[in-house]
Amino acid sequence: MWYDVVIVGGGASGLSCALTLASSRGRGWSWAEGKRYLVIDDGRSDMNRSLFNNVPGVPKGTLGKELIRTIREQIESYGGVDFVEDRVVRAEGERGNFRVFTEKGAEFESEFLVLATGFHRFEIEGLGVKVVENRRSPKPGRVMVVHDGNFKVREGLYVAGLLAGVSSMFTIAAGTGVQVAIDILSIWAGKPVVIHDVPENS
Ligand SMILES: Cc1cc2nc3c(=O)[nH]c(=O)nc-3n(C[C@H](O)[C@H](O)[C@H](O)COP(=O)(O)OP(=O)(O)OC[C@H]3O[C@@H](n4cnc5c(N)ncnc54)[C@H](O)[C@@H]3O)c2cc1C
What residue's CA is closest to ligand 1, atom 50? Predict the structure, then answer.
């Protein structure tokens, strides 16, 4: 099945990336309409173990599990994003012809591929990415994928969240997912894009 963007990982960064991509719909931007996005996630987000007291705008005491649910509902309110519960075991290709293979035997193709799988390990074969120690982790043995400093690994292939080597704080991880989404949208638009909403009658 074909998607414009496949995001591997549905935690803080992957969901934030999907939300921003989805929010480009319905704005009269011809280059954004009809785009299809996929999040593949196997349910191991660090958010499942988190209690959030210090995430801006999120009420103190919010469980990470609740926040996952809320963000997914936000994404679904825009449409255009499919969710698959599965583990990606292999991926290959270049911009325009990525192929992603899952443990359950599914196969997906995409123009862009975003890796947002957290920093515990990197288990996806076939992409030829360079995996090194995540030096911002307070615990040893955490990993990151080498990128160009702007989350691009190579044309069409991006990394977001802790796998991009940022510190393990929700807002930082989420922000990298948003940046990746904005960079992809800007490529399609052929110019820098932001997505801002304003109140009615302002
Ligand atoms: C106990 C705990 C408490 C925390 N408390 C706070 C806090 O109070 N404040 C704060 O700001 N931050 C907190 N954090 C940190 C925050 O949860 C993380 O920084 C954030 O979740 C990282 O986002 P991410 O998208 O990089 O990774 P994750 O949210 O971990 O998401 C990665 C996702 O990728 C999926 N995945 C991995 N490999 C594959 C694969 N091959 N195929 C498919 N899916 C895959 C995983 O299942 C997971 O869902 C806490 C973390 C922990 C562990």
Answer: 50
Q: Rg for the chain (alpha carbons), in Å?
A: 16
Model pTM score = 0.98
Residue 164, amino acid = A
Q: CATH number of the domain that 140 lies in?
A: 3.50.50.60
**Structural domain for 62, as ranges:** 2-189
Query: Taking phi first (over 0 means left), then psi (-120 to 50 degrees means alpha), and beta for anything else, what does residue 64 get?
Result: alpha
Beta bridge partners of 19: none
Sign (positive or negative) of CA dihedral 150, 152, 155, 158: negative
Name the residue of 46, 85, 103 to mutate for ligand 1: max ligand atoms within 8 A of Cβ.
46
Cβ-contact 39, 74 below 8 angstroms: no
- Residue 193 has a pLDDT of 97
